[in-house]
User: Fold this.
Amino acid sequence: MSLQLGVQGVALLGPGFADWAQAAPLLREPSRWQRTPTVVPAPALLPATERRRAGTVVKASVAVADAACQAAGLAPSALATVFTSSTGDPANCHAICEALAKAERLVSPTRFTNSVHNVASGYWHIATQTMQASTSLGAFDASFAAGLLEAAVQCVHGQRPLLLVACDTPYPEPLHGVRPLSDSLALALVLVPQGGRGLTIGIAGDAAPTPCGDAALEALRREIPAARALPLLQALAAPAAAALVIEGLAGQSLALQLDAAA
Assistant:
């Protein structure tokens, strides 16, 4: 069984990638890519007070979500959402653990509010006043594949456009030593039931994931769970058709067939 849909908008933010317009040619010619720390912009959609309260995962997620909607030419109010992350908000998790380790054990209401896994979805839907349904999920290193499959099923079954956002940011120490992520990376795809660039999704079992082909990009793909999307992003950046496998849970890797660009 397979799912047939389309990709209508793409956004990317990560090490050496400021946005999709800058990233696409680098993904086509990765020898030109220079790895620099991710710079997360202050999302214009968030009011100043919310920008101060929001962590990196919220800012990065909102930034790519907004960019993908603009690229697709669709209003956020028209899009249900799937947000996927292996980490949630690691800095906030660290701050809460520090607070609970003290004698006072005082956790601020803002910290508590930002501790939930759907925090990025909440900020996005409040900022855009979107009343569409939203799903937030995590599946460790397979979080992108799990999010893509969930988003594709909803898009095809509901015959409605959908926004997929994947984002991971590093933990501070000491958790970083246990779960090391090299940097922040976020991406967003607007999926549509018809139109866009054709994408067919099936299950590849335990097939080996498609590598990036460039040693530096492949290292990045392995270092950040959200970066497991890089082979698909490389294919989207190029005009040719492509077949690839995205790493998923055991026995549930995804087989993707991307049509040539029109």
